[in-house]
Design goal:
The protein is about 35% helix and about 30% strand. The chain contains 11 helices and 14 strands. The chain has helices at about 40-50, 70-75, 95-105, 110-120, 135-150, 165-180, 195-200, 220-225, 240-245, 270-280, 295-310; strands spanning about 5-15, 15-25, 30-35, 55-60, 65, 80, 155-160, 185-190, 205-210, 210-215, 230-235, 250-260, 260-265, 285-290. A 6-stranded mixed sheet has the order 6-7-8-3-9-10, sandwiched between helices. The chain has a 4-stranded antiparallel sheet with strand order 2-1-4-5. Strands 12-13-11-14 form a 4-stranded antiparallel sheet. The longest helix is centred in the middle third of the chain and has 16 residues, at about 165-180. The chain starts with a strand and ends with a helix. It holds the Pfam family ABC_tran. Keywords: ATP-binding, Nucleotide-binding, Transport.
């Protein structure tokens, strides 16, 4: 059973349909990248799944529970980090986390142990007694992430967690999120920094005009960039007869010449690939590399968005 299930989700703002019959699911342990243009419906969807907005139609289930019927229980399973979050600048870091720990009725030595563990996780141990106001933006965002983890939620919903961070802070945030995945957390993350999402996420959903236009694991999504598999074949030395071999296979198209090899579109199965490589070797080719050329998440994103708009 998926940890998160969304089916037919719809939300209006006046006459504008912000979310349009949206459906997708996230399995336990996944890092799901939720991407789309500005105004596509990402933040609205995230707020609905966290119980902060009421949907006009459809259903959201977390751990099998319908949020419309089990809101308080569902909220206890979620840690939500909004794109614009508030921190209490006149509190020290430990006081800030103590405040939220008390909100979850976590007190005493248990709260202090948890706070120390969270500060170590987000790499803020040395800032424990500093005022929040003295922290950099990146540090404040990591503190906000620690706050999301106070009640040990199953699901983290992070809306632009790296927004405004410098490159070093983004790298630190990415490493923290990887650690959280290793700890068994399921993460939904929205971001416009697509190269970093492609390194971090296991799965991606692309939303446009309130509708899911593409979803799947990273390999499936990046394949959208080319529309079919792109294969690189390299030889020990130049082998021009390869072009003759390629013409004998209907699965091969769009051949591009590279140094001592070729990149080609391939619309066949594993057996077709075996026969292609065998055919090259039988003609005297000394094949030294065969591999899949992955498209980028940016290319896949643009292709998916343009397909809808056209």
């Amino acid at each position: 059973m998926p940890l998160l299930e969304i089916e037919g989700l719809t939300k209006f703002y006046g006459k504008k349909k912000a979310v349009d019959n949206l459906s997708f699911s996230v399995e336990e342990g996944q890092i799901f990248g939720f991407v789309g243009p500005n105004g596509a419906g990402k933040t609205t969807t995230m707020k609905i799944m966290c119980g902060l907005l009421r949907a006009d139609g459809g259903c959201v289930k977390i751990n099998g529970m319908d949020i419309s019927k089990n809101l308080s229980k569902v909220k206890s399973l979620i840690g939500y980090m909004p794109d614009f979050f508030g921190v209490y600048d006149n509190l020290k870091v430990n006081e800030y986390l103590e405040f939220f720990a008390h909100a979850y009725r976590i007190k005493g030595t248990k709260a202090q142990k948890m706070i120390d563990d969270l500060l170590e996780l987000v790499r803020l141990t040395d800032k424990k007694y500093d005022f929040v106001d003295s922290l950099s933006r990146g540090m404040k965002q990591r503190l906000c992430l620690a706050r999301c983890l106070i009640h040990n939620p199953l699901l983290l919903v992070l809306d632009e967690p790296a927004s405004g961070m410098d490159p070093q802070s983004r790298i630190e945030m990415k490493e923290i999120l990887k650690n959280l995945k290793d700890m068994g957390k399921t993460i939904i993350i929205s971001s416009h920094i697509l190269p970093e999402l492609s390194e971090l996420c296991t799965h991606v959903g692309i939303i446009n005009q309130g509708r899911m236009v593409a979803q799947g694991d990273i390999a499936q999504i990046t394949m959208l960039a080319h529309g079919t598999k792109r294969i690189k074949v390299r030889f020990v030395e130049d082998f021009k007869e390869a072009l003759t071999v390629f013409k004998e296979f209907p699965a091969v198209s769009n051949v591009q010449v590279i140094e001592n090899g070729y990149i080609l579109s391939f619309d066949g199965d594993d057996n077709d690939m075996f026969l292609l490589i065998k055919g090259l070797i039988d003609r005297g080719a000394r094949v030294c590399e065969v591999g899949l050329v992955e498209g980028s998440l940016e290319e896949a994103f643009m292709k998916a968005i343009q397909a809808v708009e056209n």
